[in-house]
Amino acid sequence: MERKDLIKKWLDDELNSQELEAFKKLEDYKELTTLSNNLKRFKAPEYNVQEELNVALRHINTSKKESKTHWLRPVLRIAAILAISFSVYYYTTTLDTNIATIAAQKTTIELPDASNVSLNAMSSLAFNESSWDKHRDVTLEGEAFFKVAKGSTFNVKTKHGMVTVLGTEFNVKQRDDYFEVICYEGSVKVTHNNDIVILKPGNSFLKIDGKLIAREKETSLNPSWINNESYFKSMPFEYVIREFERQYNVSINPQNIDVKQLFTGSFSHNNLDVALKEITLPLDVTYNFKNKTTIELSRE
Amino acid sequence: MSKDISDNICDERLFSSLFEKHSKNLHDFLYYKFGEHFNPKDKVQEAFIKLWEHCGKVTPSKAKSFLFTVANNLMLNEASHQKVVLKYQKTKPKTHTNETPEFILEGNEYMDKLQKAIGNLTEAQRTAFLLNRIEGKKHKEIAVLLDISQKAVEKRIYGALKKLREDIDGL
């Protein structure tokens, strides 16, 4: 075998015993082994794989923030969807329930706790169903008759004041500068500006134009409008006209009439002609239709 | 090459096994090619971290060539072909007290010559030759490591040996 091939085989550690003998006989055998042995002293510094791996893993784990985005992004998307749907759900459930009547319309509402509210014409009632367990609060504009189930305090908020009860029957009427509360059962606390008045059954609280007006004891069990009738006692005629307009969805023009004069009486909600007679005859007033919804009142 | 079980290496265990398999070879490769001046350990770390960052795109079978290419490029960016000087152990494995001072002097002279001669080899020759002579790697293993043919490895190693001997004689 040639010298070159022997050396090549030696380099790859492939010499068999015969070849090894031949290799040992080469003249440069000693030189080659010396070289080879001395080369070993150039060995690379110790490399501790486990130690280096730990360094790498530590680095990876601290810089995971960047790679976290791989799975963080879809998670964030899901979170955003959840947040939006939750807030929509929250918004819609905490939104007040609003019930309103138009002119010539009445309605009865059952509140979440089986309390009953009858809503007169052109009135609105708002309450929050989701927080009903915590606060029984309703906001009223117009007139309503309440039959409140026993329970925690029940508040009726109006523009003119607050009515607080525990469980009773009462009527609240709030129209423009008119504020009236009549208690039919139990007791009712009325807060108006800084006044606090406790009403017993039959008592009423009435303020017109900021003036407190004393009233006789109420003997009926219900407000008259529940029975489709509006009853007035010593009421300035203008308030009667306004109530009439709401009940029949008409507009009334008093011509040469003193609207401040007091009216006692009632009108029914069922028949326009009868009702008109009911409010005009006692005051000796005539009425005539300008058109279907406009009525003129005048004195001869 | 074994079949890939998964198509990426974004898994710490898989990553660790790749590290255990390739890191030492990569380190030795860098050391013998570029010397220790540019800190081959750090380059190994950097290369593996790059591998992790691109773990979704690199299959396990491609990991080795990815690592070697990245580490090699990292080195080339810094080491603009400076003269490579490899250190050798100054202390001899055995101290022969009966050796003459001349012999020891001769030995040191020999080592210095050898050091210079190693520096004079081409990068390709030096890497293959030292992986073979010092790390005891077979030609076949080196061929896989460097992605070249076994014949080329043999040629490089034999060429390196020849050049070394000429240099030592000449110096």
CATH class of the largest domain in chain B: Mainly Alpha
What name is given to the CATH topology of the largest domain in chain A? Jelly Rolls
Number of domains of chain A: 4
The stretches of 5 or more residues of chain B where confidence is low (pLDDT under 50) are none
| CATH fold-level assignment of the largest domain in chain B | Arc Repressor Mutant, subunit A
Write down the Rg of chain A: 47 Å
What is the string of SSEs of chain A from the N terminus onward?
Answer: HHHHHEEEEEEEEEEEEEEHEEHEE
Most extensive protein-chain contact, per-chain counts:
A-B, 33 and 46 residues
Low-confidence stretches of chain A: none
Global mean pLDDT of chain B: 81
Structure in words:
The complex is a heterodimer of chains A (300) and B (171). Chain A is of the alpha+beta class. Chain A contains 7 helices and 18 strands. Chain A folds into 4 domains: 3-42, no CATH class; 49-94; 98-212, Jelly Rolls; 228-298, Phage tail protein beta-alpha-beta fold (3-Layer(bab) Sandwich). Chain A has helices at 3-11, 17-24, 29-39, 49-62, 64-94, 237-248, 272-280, and strands spanning 97-100, 107-110, 116-119, 124-127, 136-147, 154-157, 161-165, 169-175, 178-185, 188-192, 195-199, 204-208, 211-212, 229-236, 251-254, 262-268, 286-291, 294-298. In chain A, strands 1, 2, 3, 4, 5, 6, 7, 8, 9, 10, 11, 12 and 13 form a 13-stranded mixed sheet that branches. In chain A, strands 15-18-17 form a 3-stranded mixed sheet, covered by helices on one side. The model of chain A has no long low-confidence stretch (mean pLDDT 84). Chain B has 2 domains: 12-78; 101-170, Orthogonal Bundle (Arc Repressor Mutant, subunit A). The longest helix of chain B is centred in the N-terminal third of the chain and has 23 residues, at 12-34. Chain B is elongated and about 60 Å long. The model of chain B has no long low-confidence stretch (mean pLDDT 81). Classes of the chains: A alpha+beta (300), B mainly alpha (171). The A-B interface holds A 4, 7-8, 11-13, 28, 31, 34-36, 38-45, 47, 49-50, 52-53, 55-57, 59-60, 63, 66-67, 70 and B 10, 12, 15-16, 19-20, 23-24, 27-28, 31-32, 36, 40-41, 44-45, 48-49, 52-53, 56, 86-89, 110-111, 114-115, 118, 130, 132-136, 138-139, 154, 157-158, 161, 164-165, 168.
